[in-house]
Amino acid sequence: MGVDAIVTAGDGRAARKVFKKNKAMLDVAGKPIIRYIVEALLACDDIDRVVVVGPRESFLPVIGDLGVDIVPQKRSLVENGWEGFLQTIPEYRRTGALTPEIIDAYRDKYVLFLSGDIPLISPRELHEFISQCDMEHFDYVAGATSEKVLELFGPRKGRPGIKMATFHMWDGNLRQNNLHMARPFSVLESIDLVLNAYEFRYQKEFTNILKAVLEILRFGRGNILQTLATYLTLQLSAMLSSLGLGQAARLVSFPIRRPGVERLVSDILNVRFKIAETTVGGAALDVDNEKDYIILSVMYRDWVNQIGSN
Question: N or C: which end of the chain has fewer CB within 10 A?
Answer without folding.
Answer: N
